[in-house]
Amino acid sequence: MVQGKPSGRLGRRGVLKxxxxxxxxxxxQISSPFIVKALGEQPFKIGFVDPLTGSLSLLAVSxxxxxxxxxxxxxxxxxxxxxxxxxxxxxxxxxxxxxVEKIRELIDKDHxxxxxxxxNSAIAYAxxxxxxxxxxxxxxxxxxxxxxxxxxCAWNVFRxxxxxxxxxxxxxxxxxKKFGKRWYFITPDYAYGHTLQAAFVKNLMKAGGTYEAxxxxxxxxxxxxxxxxxxxxxPNVLLNNMGGLAQIDCMKQFVQFGMDKDMALGGAxxxxxxxxxxxxxxxxGWWDMEWWWDQPGVPYVKEFVTGIVDRYKKPCSARHWFGYxxxxxxxxxxxxxKSTKAIDLAHTLEGMELPPEIALQPGKVFYRAxxxxxxxxxxxxxxxxxxxxxxxxxxxxADLVPGDQAQPLAETGCHMTxxx
Length: 420
Prior knowledge:
The protein has 420 residues and is of the alpha/beta class. The chain has helices at residues 12-18, 20-25, 57-76, 96-108, 121-134, 164-179, 191-206, 224-233, 244-256, 272-275, 301-312, 318-337, 342-349, 356-359, 403-406, and strands at residues 44-50, 85-91, 114-116, 138-140, 157-159, 182-188, 210-216, 237-240, 264-269, 286-289, 366-367, 374-375, 377-383, 395-402. Helix 4 packs parallel to helix 5 (121-134) and helix 6 packs across helix 7 (191-206).
């Protein structure tokens, strides 16, 4: 990547790989010029790897947009400790090998100060291990699989999105009470899907339920055979654990087959990017939102939402918030630690509570010291078609579940150790 690439632009390799995703991110991300206050100071470089192409690209683009929004906001206010912030974005193309290659290039060639990524849990897991090998601070904005901050937790790795167990635990009781204990899972066959389904099954078994399940490729597009088998099983609830374009295809086919009349829909995540891409009949079910834009009376939320919507001409999502929090977490750590050493930044982030203008939700939002998992609220509720005059109001919150209640530290399997 060309050194000194302005914040807000994809680097050379990212431009070649991102393709149509670059258009989705938009020209509005190009940052205004930054005047370096401390002459001779090198800019802070943030490396961000996400699948800007492939089945998870809708979610990745929003994460990167949120990160760009934060970088530009920070630079307009003088940067971090008077130093410009530059964002280096690379496309993992939804491929583990590519993601690992990109993170190594960012560290070894571009000499970034911190790394972030990936939406794909398998890539997020792999690149976090590279960051640990290199001894660099790493933040996972949106890869959910449990081991990242669970049994394979590491001193330098912090995560913003929930674990799969947190998301499953927050919605399981609602699904059981409202619809029953006979479930059918359609699950992606990779790290995210495996740990998510396992968490759901654990909760269902405790309640005396029964289930059948199918594991399908992460980018699967034809769900007809799976849906036929699901219909024959006659479940109370179909849990669609797919993500991105695969989840969208599954939801469309679900209503095309008329299955919305036979069973309820639900699961962990049905993100707003995906909800908007399906017909109104498929805008249904009970799910988690890991952050939700409609929070009347909560300080700073309206300003953030308005800023994202005005800039990107799309609804403000949890993915925007993930990217935004990732950038600000690095800023907060550097300024509090008065250091750029990874070990100092990690110790500083442990237990750190996000200020209200970054947390953007009620209550205490903090990085739990024992596993480096962010403890936010989980917004559990119902997806539904919007009213005619409220095109983005697609979800009604039924419950706010504190993150540390959704998964206590003792259940994570994390045993945090630091280098001597």
